[in-house]
Design brief:
- The complex is a heterodimer.
- Chain A has three domains: about 45 residues; about 120 residues, Uridine Diphospho-n-acetylenolpyruvylglucosamine Reductase, domain 3 (2-Layer Sandwich), CATH 3.30.465; about 90 residues, CO dehydrogenase flavoprotein, C-terminal domain (Enolase-like, domain 1, 2-Layer Sandwich).
- Helix content of chain A is about 25%, strand content about 25%.
- Chain A has nine helices and 14 strands.
- In chain A, the strands form four sheets. Chain A has a five-stranded antiparallel beta sheet. A four-stranded antiparallel beta sheet of chain A has the order 11-12-13-14, sandwiched between helices.
- In chain A, strand 13 and strand 14 form a beta hairpin.
- In chain A, helix 2 runs antiparallel to helix 5 and helix 8 runs antiparallel to helix 9.
- Chain A starts with 7 loop residues before the first strand and ends in a 5-residue tail after the last helix.
- Chain B has a seven-stranded mixed beta sheet, sandwiched between helices.
- In chain B, helix 17 packs parallel to helix 25.
- The chains are: A alpha+beta, B alpha+beta.
- Chains A and B meet through strand 3, helix 3 and helix 9 of A and strand 4, helix 6, helix 10 and helix 26 of B.
């Protein structure tokens, strides 16, 4: 929609040019949320496009995803064969409530910064041990795991004027065997629970719970848990107040779906019979 | 800056915060539609460098240097794009408001996406079709019949006359026009559920550059009216002012700002200082009639047609035939339960809004998105004390209605602003305003008691209804009366009792909605029929057969009605039940399901009077043109209901010509005559009858004119293939037109229909479903609907109406839910939080027609717009009960709402 209070758009090309931030400014990445709701408190958009951050880069140890990388760009990444977790990328892109038409514009960073419980890029990057790099307002950088970056429903660790620069995914995480489960109130609706499990080399299980909870919650099991141990751990770690409530799912149901999907993941990764 | 749109360069520069959607429209590309303005519906889809995007989310400046293609440019120089042609061949649209975005998206899908249309099309909402016709278009299926012989149009699957314009994006809807000197209106809305306006300080608002007027209750006539539009004004309470000094729900309009731009008007709204005195609000309808409850309209009385304002009671009804209590006491089986039907929104993709201006003759013109132009004109003339001929109300193609536009929500403000400023004005509601400040379906609590004897004959039916009409009483009474009428009149039962109450609350008003109350009571009545049958071990089909009214049976619901004009013009309910039962028994492949999935069948039926009571009027005029074709003028509006197609079919059939020879003019008070409006499924049954009468009269006059020329008896004349013939003599319509011109006796005829007597139509819905006892998810395995529409005027369109009705009803039964918090605020006023059925959500429905011919309707046809919606939630509830053994009584039947009871019964 038209943002009628916006009177100017800045197009910085370097980090130095970002510093002229004033009240009423907002970062503009894809803009797919920004332009979807009235923003009457804003007067200027600072377009991040001309910073020309490379969308995706694979280094020796990491997959680096620029905050401005679009969902389409990430979805189109052709992954090496040993990235056993690569299917998670497509699965999480398809978990968007928004269609492929939005993926061309919406960004990975934007999804993280919105910090909605159902943000599927949060699910993906949290499950893959992603690390956020934040350009601090006063200069310098801060690195925070994605799972700690999001602190609640539409809450995160960004301070005013901070900018999410990129998310680095350790290649080791991409090489883990993984399992994905998602449920919503409608066949292609917003995620009400999105769980990702993965197995490390030592046989340990890592479970990332998103969408059903107000923030990502990770549970690690150094030894493969049986069904009962898994259930107990979830029940203890995820207290009832952590389950999210809104029109897309009542907390009681989200809790039971979390338990259910977690067990499905455990069974898929470890086999139906606990060792 | 320079923007390339459809191959043409535009030098204009967008505003800094402007989105591409409005920029393209400002450049004249009106095919780019606004459904939500928030990226959820896809109506604004355009191609950016060949890739589909939602233009409402794209900052306009970012499109610089990229090739933009709108629907108008999709076909290029070679005419229509194959996908445009495919949508035409399959008639993959109804109102057509989503069509541009749908075509652009479908045309962009790759092979992989085409194999999973549910995912590929989740960003495109169609509120009308139920998606089957869209799927047909994608698969290249042709649904329209090719050429039809002269005189043979009725009963054939002819395409909508507007189709070519719809698929090209050139069909004109309400806002698809550029007007010079236009001013924009924005409304300041109440943040309080109940408050008195103590003072309004306009100074800061007026100081905003570009603001021309700030209109408040001080500027508005003090006249009380109802936003509901009915042929008879006495049907609704007078409780509404254009702008009031009391606000009664969050979202009620407080003031209107008229300014050079929407941005300036919005800014002035923010600066307008309103001093409110907040008073206690009534949110819970259960509290409405209790002593001490806040009073929503304490100053109204029976003189304003409010039953008892001191109890917040808008209307009530009570009546009993026989003795229900005694019958229940002695029945072999009984059932008693309380159902709650929730608040849902029409969600027509075109929001409410319009344009108004004074022309050189001093006539107030209002171009608006309405189902009722004539009744709106009457209301405006009354409120502003203008002669009827000084007000013109008309609509272009309307982007969906579903009852929501049988109201006057914007035309009053438009008229006030145009009259005050003397300038053309525009008011286009946002999607959020649609949710918080137009109307919804009436939420109802329905208590049912029912009994049957050991043979399965109903002994007693009792309904007790509490309907929540919100802050204003528009449609409150009529919806309740309708809800308590056909729902039980369709069953023979010696003892019937109804009690109904409609109450005010300080919440967004409820109004007319497809089905008009029947779906809310049917879910209870049809559940009772099933539960009694289950107790007796009788099949649900057989139980219904034993109790439905048969041809000639009195159709009774207490109290004694003032109307005795409902007749069996035809009767096909028995056929509908048979058709559904047979189809449900047919062997069809079913997906393999794990044992967690519990399957069950459900059926429900509905009867509907083909016309609302107390008069529904339509005039039609038809004239022979010089070219031998005809100009047909009707008042009824086209909003995807397909009546434009049907009117041409009726006229062409009567005049033994082809539909392309009938030029239709419609829905404009300037054309003269009267038309009550396109509601109550009357576009064919009432207005079509007027068209038939006009065409029959014109045929008579054509024959008389020829007979006069030939000096023969008109009785020897007949019309065949665009000629009047008598023996060996033949005179073409063109020759007749020449003759008429030469003799100075134009060949024009008028037809009228008063909407009485009325007939009855029937629908039966069957579902086979599976419920996952571990998650609460529902899958629809089979959906069948049989309809008794009399002689089906246009099978393709009628099927579309039924599929669309099923889809919309499934939305309400499975997903859609307006949530109002304890303070009276709508908490989810956007599509992403109000889940409309998308392609993936809607099963294909097998549509079957009873073979009947109505003695009252035009050429044997009956109405079929609202009623397909009515039995769906009831049938689904019955199927869930069959699958799970649990009777759920409060839709929507979402997994999280079903889960607790499933978990209690079945465990983990």
């Amino acid at each position: 929609m038209d943002l009628n209070t916006i009177t100017a758009v800045a197009h910085p090309q370097t980090r130095a040019q970002l510093l002229a931030w004033t009240p009423g400014d907002a970062w503009l990445a894809g803009g797919t949320w920004l332009f979807s709701e009235p923003q009457v408190h804003l007067t200027r958009l600072i377009d991040l496009t001309d910073l020309k951050w490379p969308a995706l880069a694979i280094t020796e140890g990491h997959l680096s995803i620029a905050a401005t990388c679009t969902i389409s760009q990430l979805d189109a990444l052709s992954c090496p064969a040993d990235w056993l977790a690569a299917p998670l990328i497509g699965q999480c892109c398809r978990a968007f409530l928004a269609s492929f038409k939005i993926w061309k514009t919406a960004t990975v960073g934007g999804n993280l910064c919105m910090s909605l419980p159902a943000g599927p890029m949060i699910s993906l990057t949290a499950a893959l041990d992603g690390i956020c790099t934040i350009w601090k307002a006063g200069g310098g950088e801060q690195r925070i795991p994605v799972a700690e970056f999001v602190t609640g429903n539409q809450r995160n660790r960004l301070s005013p004027r901070d900018l999410l620069r990129q998310i680095d995914i350790p290649l080791a995480a991409l090489k883990r065997r993984s399992a994905f489960r998602q449920i919503s109130l409608a066949p292609v609706g917003r995620s009400a629970a999105l769980l990702i499990g993965s197995l490390d080399d030592a046989g340990g299980l890592k479970l990332t719970v998103t969408a059903s909870t107000v923030r990502p919650i990770q549970l690690s099991f150094p030894k493969p848990p049986d069904a009962s141990a898994l259930r107990t751990a979830i029940t203890e770690e995820i207290t009832d107040d952590l389950y999210h409530t809104d029109i897309h799912g009542k907390p009681l149901w989200r809790k039971h779906m979390t338990l259910r999907l977690a067990e499905e993941i455990r069974a898929e990764l470890l086999g139906a019979t606990p060792p | 800056m320079s923007f390339e749109v459809n191959g043409t360069n535009f030098p204009q520069t967008p505003r800094a915060g402007q989105c591409l959607r409005t920029f393209l429209r400002e450049l004249g590309h009106f095919g780019v539609k606004k459904g939500c303005d928030a990226g959820d519906c896809g109506a604004c889809t355009v191609l950016l460098d060949g890739e589909p995007v939602h233009s409402c989310l794209i900052p306009a400046f970012r499109a610089e240097g990229h090739a933009i293609t709108t629907i108008e440019g999709l076909g290029g120089e070679h005419g229509a794009h194959p996908m445009q042609q495919a949508f035409l061949d399959a008639q993959g649209f109804q109102c057509g408001f989503c069509t541009a975005g749908m075509i652009l998206t479908c045309a962009s899908l790759n092979q992989a996406q085409r194999t999973d249309l549910g995912a590929a099309l989740k960003g495109n909402i169609c509120r009308c079709t139920g998606y089957r016709a869209i799927e047909d278009a994608i698969h290249g299926k042709t649904n329209v019949e090719a050429t039809v012989e002269a005189g043979g149009a009725f009963g054939r699957s002819l395409p909508a006359p507007a189709g070519p314009d719809v698929v090209r994006g050139t069909a004109r809807y309400t806002f698809d026009t550029a007007i010079d000197n236009l001013l924009h209106i924005k409304l300041l809305r109440s943040p309080h559920a109940h408050a008195r306006i103590v003072a309004i300080d306009r100074s800061a608002a007026m100081a905003v550059p570009g603001v021309h007027a700030v209109l408040t209750h001080e500027d508005a006539p003090s006249v009380l009216f109802s936003t509901a539009r009915h042929e008879k004004d006495w049907m609704d309470p007078e409780d509404t002012r254009i702008l009031d000094d009391v606000v009664r729900f969050i979202g009620q309009k407080v003031a209107a700002i008229v300014a050079e731009s929407e941005g300036a008007a919005e800014e002035a709204c923010r600066r307008l200082k309103v001093d409110y005195e907040i008073v206690p609000a009534l949110i819970d309808p259960e509290q409405a009639m209790m002593p001490g409850a806040p009073l929503v309209h304490p100053d109204r009385s029976s003189a304003n047609r409010v039953a008892d304002a001191q109890r917040n009671l808008v209307a009530e009804t009570h009546g009993e035939f026989g003795d229900v209590a005694s019958a229940l006491a002695t029945s072999a089986v009984t059932f008693e339960a309380t159902f709650h039907s929730h608040r849902v929104q029409h969600a027509a993709l075109e929001t409410h809004g319009g344009l108004a201006w004074l022309d050189d003759a001093g006539v107030l013109n209002v171009r608006t998105s309405t189902q009722v132009p004539f009744l709106t004109r009457r209301a405006l003339a009354d409120i502003f004390q203008l002669p009827m001929d000084k007000v013109r109300v008309f609509c272009e193609r309307v982007g969906g209605g579903f009852g929501g536009k049988q109201e006057m929500f914007v035309e009053d403000i438009l008229a006030l602003a145009a009259l005050k400023t003397g300038r053309p004005v525009k008011l286009e509601l946002t999607r959020e305003e649609q949710f918080i400040a137009t109307s919804t379906r009436h939420p109802m609590r329905v208590q049912i008691k029912a009994g049957a004897d050991a043979d399965g004959r109903l002994t007693a039916l009792q309904l007790d209804v509490l309907s929540n009409t919100g802050a204003y009483g528009n449609h409150g009474g009529p919806v309740m009366f309708h809800a308590l009428s056909e729902s039980i009149a369709v069953y023979n039962c010696p003892n019937k009792r109804v009690d109904g109450f409609v109450v005010y609350t300080n919440t967004v008003p409820a109004g007319a909605f497809r089905g008009y109350g029947l779906p809310q009571t049917l879910i209870a009545v049809e559940a009772a029929i099933d539960e009694l049958a289950r107790q007796l071990g009788i099949s649900p089909y057989e139980m219904r057969r034993r109790n439905i009214v048969r041809l000639g049976d009195p159709m009774l619901s207490p109290p004694e009605s003032d109307y005795h004009d409902v007749l069996y013009g035809s009767y096909g309910l028995d056929q509908c039940i048979d058709l559904v039962e047979r189809a449900m028994q047919a062997d069809t492949p079913q997906p393999a399901l794990s044992p967690e999935w519990l399957t069950g069948d459900g059926v429900a039926l509905t009867m509907i009077d083909t016309v609302p009571p107390a008069g529904h009027i339509a005039d039609a005029m038809i004239a022979l043109n010089d070219d031998g074709g005809f100009d047909l003028t009707v008042g009824t509006a086209e909003f995807g209901n397909g009546t434009s197609t049907v009117h041409r079919q009726i006229a062409a059939t009567v005049l033994a010509t082809t539909v392309d020879r009938i030029r239709l003019r419609q829905s404009d008070t300037a054309h003269g005559g009267h038309d009550t409006g396109a509601y109550g499924s009357t576009g064919t049954f009432v207005a079509g009858k007027a068209t038939q009468a006009a065409a029959v009269q014109l045929a008579t006059e054509l024959k008389a004119a020829a007979a006069n020329a030939w000096l023969c008896d008109a009785g020897t004349c007949a019309i065949e293939g665009e000629f009047v013939v008598s023996g060996v003599r033949r005179m073409s319509f063109t020759e007749l037109a020449t003759l008429a011109r030469e003799t100075g006796r134009p060949l024009v005829a008028y037809g009228n229909s008063e909407g009485t007597p009325r007939s009855v139509g029937f629908n039966v819905q069957g579902f086979r479903i599976a419920v996952n006892k571990g998650t609460g998810e529902i899958r629809i395995l089979r959906s069948v609907q049989a309809a008794d529409a009399g002689v089906v005027a246009n099978p393709m369109q009628c099927r579309g109406q039924i599929e669309g009705g099923v889809a919309q009803a499934l939305g309400a039964a499975l997903y859609e839910e307006m949530v109002i918090d304890a303070n009276g605020r709508v908490t989810n006023p956007k599509f992403r939080d109000y889940h409309l059925p998308s392609f993936a959500d809607v099963p294909r429905t097998e549509v079957l027609f009873a073979e009947t011919s109505d003695t009252i309707g035009p050429l044997g046809a009956k109405s079929m717009s609202e009623s397909p919606y009515n039995p769906v939630a009831a049938a689904l509830g019955n199927a869930i009960a069959d699958a799970t053994g649990i009777r759920f009584t409060a839709p929507p039947f979402k997994p999280d709402r079903l889960f607790p009871a499933l978990h209690d019964k079945f465990g983990d």
